[in-house]
Specification:
Blueprint: H1 2-11, H2 25-28, H3 41-48, H4 73-81, H5 85-93, H6 99-105, H7 127-141, E1 156-160, H8 164-175, E2 179-183, H9 192-195, H10 204-216, E3 220-222, H11 233-239, E4 242-245, E5 251-252, E6 265-267, H12 268-277, E7 295-299, H13 303-314, E8 319-324, H14 335-343, E9 347-350, E10 352-359, E11 365-378, E12 384-388, E13 394-397, E14 400-403, E15 407-408, H15 412-415, E16 441-443, H16 446-449, H17 454-474
Parallel strand pairs: 1-2, 1-4, 2-3, 4-16, 6-14, 7-8, 7-14, 8-9
Antiparallel strand pairs: 5-15, 10-11, 11-12, 11-13
């Protein structure tokens, strides 16, 4: 009988997700307001009712198997089906400290929604949209709700870095009764959420509201505090029982091509930090100017490259160009971001790579020379390797060029902690639960994995928080040096 009911439900499935209202592309390309506008309660309930409430089986994965922070997705969706939004967000909050962030920037299409059974024949259930709806509902309707804090364990935790991994560890350990202090180098908490991701994708008021929620758990966040300068990890270990390092990957990678020192060429990190953290998009109300020419070229094909290209358009560029050495199918950015970029008029020069940069007599960028590529055999990443086409050189006139080809780990903490093992990539060597080679020190997020997504950093933080709790309450010892002989991810 149960199977018959399930088959009936399948036959009633609405094939496509209920639409998400968005700003018109012609309008949003010149403002920094959020692009997707969010769903209303009625639409959220209808979307939730597309869910089949699948159960795990011995040979069957369901949506929550694709969630790095282990949210019980069927359970919270069932609450939304009943219009019990308070119960739904409570289930999410059991595992997720930053739901309003993940509901906006998590690549759910390749994670939870990628495993959705409904998605086998139709569009998957809009899990990310539902998470966003609930987080926004909570912030609007329950802003004065009391947060339960457990009795103190007497144990103290230092977290270095208030990005996604650090905030996840802080929230999870605060829920267990530990006293957590977070040390953040910047004046605002959030890490890449505030300096990297543009306002039109993730409004900063959303980040600050999530940080405030964590503070209400009793977490002490100290901004403008650079560990590695004011204190070292060894100094923190004298005061705290355990330390978690989550300093991210803020060191930009460069092309090392001829002319890269010309005026008008900058890293994606500098461009986005000046725009987002330092509010250059509100100049002169804020004191940070930023130079954007009539034509801006961005090198790269990931989410950061899309953010750069779309930001340049909003800052006044007449043309914004993506230069990427593979084809559209290999673009690593989320398809939603690529779609939005194309709608806004971003020009994609695909299967092309820069060769050199050319300037005028005053040292200002005037052109980028590029070479056409074709795809060869797959490389180590599984993507087809770009191969140069001899004699296919062409130029693009431009006044600003942004290099968005990845970031490397922040080297400050490893440099000031001599007995902390690192990998050949400069990441901190960790085991599967975030332990480092130094007793009492854990690490996670981009400083341990290399540059990755926000949600994967949160997953690192969640695993590390469990291991840190066990270490604090049971003190089961520490792995020997051999655990870090083949370090890194």
């Amino acid at each position: 009988m149960a199977e018959e009911e399930k088959e009936k439900k399948k036959s009633r499935i609405v094939p496509k997700k209920y639409p998400m209202p968005e700003q018109d592309p012609k309008e949003r390309g010149r403002n920094f307001n959020e692009v997707p506008l969010g769903q209303d309660a009625e639409t959220a309930v209808l979307e939730a009712k597309r869910c089949l409430q699948c159960k795990r089986g011995p040979n069957r994965k369901i949506c929550m198997d694709g969630c790095p922070v282990e949210i019980d997705i069927p359970a919270f969706i069932e609450k939304v089906q009943e219009a019990d939004f308070s119960g739904a967000i409570a289930i999410i909050r059991e595992k997720q400290n930053l739901p309003a962030v993940c509901g906006r920037v998590c690549p759910y299409e390749s994670q939870c929604e990628g495993l959705c059974i409904v998605g086998k024949k139709n569009e998957p259930v809009g899990i990310g949209r539902l998470e966003r709806f609930l987080a926004d509902w909570e912030r609007r309707e329950q802003k004065h709700a009391k947060i339960q804090v457990p009795p103190s364990t007497g144990k103290t935790v230092a977290v270095v870095g208030a990005g996604p991994a650090g905030l996840t560890v802080a929230g999870d350990l605060a829920k267990l009764g530990h006293a957590v202090t977070v040390f953040e180098a910047l004046q605002y908490s959030g890490g890449v959420l505030v300096y990297g991701i543009p306002e039109f994708r993730l409004p900063k008021e959303i980040v600050y509201a999530e940080v405030d929620y964590i503070k209400k758990m009793g977490v002490d966040i100290r901004n403008d505090y650079v560990v590695g300068k004011l204190d070292t990890v060894d100094d923190l270990l004298k005061e705290y029982d355990v330390v978690f390092v989550a300093t991210g990957a803020g060191l930009p990678n460069w092309t090392n091509l001829e002319g890269e020192n010309l005026n008008g060429i900058m890293s994606a990190n500098e461009f986005l930090t000046r725009t987002n953290l330092m509010k250059a998009f509100k100049f002169p109300d804020y004191d940070t100017p930023i130079r954007v020419g009539e034509t801006v070229v961005t090198i790269g094909g990931g989410n950061v490259a899309m953010d750069c290209a779309r930001t340049a358009l909003r800052l006044g560029a007449k043309e914004s160009v993506i230069l990427y050495r593979r084809s559209d199918a290999e673009l690593p950015a989320r398809r939603e971001e690529i779609h939005h970029a194309k709608e806004e008029g971003i020009r994609f020069e695909l299967l092309a790579a820069p060769v050199k940069f050319m300037g005028d007599d005053c040292g200002n960028l005037r052109q980028v020379e590029a070479l056409r590529m074709e795809l060869g055999e797959p490389d180590a990443s599984g993507r087809r390797r770009p191969v140069k086409i001899d004699g296919s050189n062409f130029t693009i006139d431009c006044q600003t060029l942004l290099v968005a080809i990845g970031q490397s780990p922040n080297p400050l903490v490893p440099m000031t902690t001599p007995d902390l093992k690192t990998t050949k990539w400069g990441t901190i060597a960790v085991d599967g639960e975030g332990r480092t080679s130094k007793k009492g020190v854990f690490a996670g997020g981009d400083i341990a994995s290399g540059a990755a997504t926000v949600i994967l950093a949160m997953g690192d933080g969640k695993r590390a928080a469990r291991a840190m709790h066990t270490y604090l309450v049971e003190d089961q010892g520490w792995p020997g040096p051999e655990a870090f002989e083949q370090p890194g991810k």
